[in-house]
Amino acid sequence: MIYTPFAREAFVFIVNADNPVNSLTEQQVRDIFSGAITNWRTVGGNDQEIQTWQRPEDSGSQTVMQSQVMKNVRMISPQETEVASMMEGMIKVVAEYRNTNNAIGYTFRYYATQMNDDKNIKLLAINGIAPTAENIRNGKYPYIVDAFMVTRENTTSETQKIVGVVFNAAGTEFGGRCRLCPDV
């Protein structure tokens, strides 16, 4: 199999737009989500308890959070909410992000800026590096996920045409319109 990168996406941390914190270090992020840091004042914010929001265990966001960000550091238990289930009655699930003044959560940049273009949400810089398209393309932003096209070694001419479209000017322009960073 041939793995060919064609776009990059950033894994970002989101807070309320009114939160005075604009950047965290990688270690501060791990400390917040492990429970070692529990007050925004510790990282330059207001004297408020930090309310962390996580994603469900089987989600792509949670997988990236555990593997790239937390590495071997155990995360605190996620906030849960009860929902009705047809088969099991009320069940507990990981609660959705709520954009309160003391909240912090995470997602992929595309979801935060395109699918949920909420002006009340702010993306945090990590180590002083904002998750801009330029910083994602050049690899300066620390949490990047590459999107790959996977093909067999002996591809057909039809497959080669599809690969060509992804990498031609129209494919690159389309990736840019989708707010992916196509210049890997």
UniProtKB/TrEMBL annotation:
The keyword Signal applies. It comes from the Bacteria. Residues 1-155 form the PBP domain. SUPFAM superfamilies: Periplasmic binding protein-like II. Keywords: Signal. Gene3D superfamilies: Periplasmic binding protein-like II (3.40.190.10). It holds the Pfam family PBP_like_2. InterPro entries: PBP_domain, Phosphate_ABC_transporter. This is Phosphate ABC transporter, periplasmic phosphate-binding protein PstS (TC 3.A.1.7.1). It comes from Escherichia coli ISC7. The lineage of its organism: Bacteria, Pseudomonadati, Pseudomonadota, Gammaproteobacteria, Enterobacterales.
